[in-house]
Amino acid sequence: MANEVILLDTWASMFGMRARIALAEKSVKYEYKEEDLRNKSPLLLQMNPIHNKIPVLIHNGKSICESAIIVQYIDEVWNDKASFMPSDPYERAQARFWVDYSDKKVYDTWKKMWLSKGEEYEEGKMELISIFKTLEGALSDKLFYGGDTFGFLDIGLIPFYSWFYAFETYGNFKMETECPKLMAWTKRCMEKDSVSKSLPDQKKVYDFVVSIKKALGLD
Amino acid sequence: MANEVILLDTWASMFGMRARIALAEKSVKYEYKEEDLRNKSPLLLQMNPIHNKIPVLIHNGKSICESAIIVQYIDEVWNDKASFMPSDPYERAQARFWVDYSDKKVYDTWKKMWLSKGEEYEEGKMELISIFKTLEGALSDKLFYGGDTFGFLDIGLIPFYSWFYAFETYGNFKMETECPKLMAWTKRCMEKDSVSKSLPDQKKVYDFVVSIKKALGLD
């Protein structure tokens, strides 16, 4: 069977990066197709007709959508390499729980802080810091969320690192001060090629975020 | 090892029902603890400190939260019976996708219709019908979402059936007219003891919903 793998993605997407890291971890060769979210391609609309969102993994013509589901799919299909998932069902449930938590919390709270002023801005900022402190608590004293090895939850969370400079600059706080253990974990992750080569530069993400806010007339 | 299983739940919860069905399918004996959501127990707050929500499964003192994650946990721990999950990774990704879709769409859209009037009500109603038509499309001509057998996505979706009378009455539409294939599927599911014994009566759910709206002063 031909093994044609295509990823529809946008370079700055926190969620697209999960798929890129997972593919790199499994050494899967794929075609990367950059999407312009203001002018989505017919292929994206066809392959994710329900949400019209990136990332979409297209494997031999079939589409898989939603980043956490894509990462699990990659893990299950390319199973010749070590699984991303912990072997214990309770640990697996915990990893899924925290990925789900980050899905529900990080992006929406960042948007609240980024796009508002005054009281709502302050609320968003405190919430965003509190979310990362909570995630730091879940790391505890482990090397990686996966324990001694980089796994599903590490893949789920490390993309946020590329947005840290934007979070810090708009929020006027320092991740290093707020979450030193989490920052040490980001450094360990960034030593992996699968991560460092999949994440864009933090300043480039910040410049992108500034340009979007200007384009929205909110600056 | 002792196998102590406790479910913190509320009888009318669409999400708690998923856990009940999964436990019944695997013939797991457990203690059911009804929660009063207006006065949550210290055990619930301790066992789900992040979301303070039901359902929570407590297995030998450890808590598992979020209904879709609970169902996967039950599937993986009590693996002496057939898995809820399709054997094919693509089918598994699809099952996860539609459970996630229903998580994101059904309850919020129902609330939009239930708690609003005028244009927003009409919008909510049309959206709710459209969601179930979309879910019916995903069933296609299969007996169950799991194919010939009742599986993960069936467990994820069938609890909504117990709310259909409330949806229909507040929305002034008929599921039988809008989604006849989906209705035929609900009948097949309800022939299973694991489902029929886990779902409350539709009229009881409706009365509950009426009483909540009154208590909110919105009637």
What does this protein look like?
Two copies of one chain form a homodimer. With 219 residues, chain A is of the alpha+beta class. Chain A is 57% helix and 8% strand. The first copy, chain A, folds into two domains: 5-77, Glutaredoxin (3-Layer(aba) Sandwich); 89-215, Glutathione S-transferase Yfyf (Class Pi), Chain A, domain 2, CATH 1.20.1050.10. Chain A is built from eleven helices and four strands, in the order βαβαββααααααααα. Chain A has a four-stranded mixed beta sheet with strand order 2-1-3-4, with helices on one face. In chain A, helix 1 (14-25) packs parallel to helix 3 (67-77) and helix 4 packs antiparallel against helix 5 (118-139). The mean pLDDT of chain A is 96.
Key structural traits:
Glutathione S-transferase Yfyf (Class Pi), Chain A, domain 2; 219 residues; Glutathione S-transferase (chains A, B); homodimer; 2 domains; 4 strands; globular; alpha+beta; four-stranded mixed β-sheet; Glutaredoxin
Q: Profile the largest sheet of chain A.
A: 4 strands, mixed
Overall 3D form of chain A: globular
Helix content of chain A: 55-70%
Number of structural units classed as domains of chain A: 2
Helix/strand/pairing class of chain A, anyone?
alpha+beta
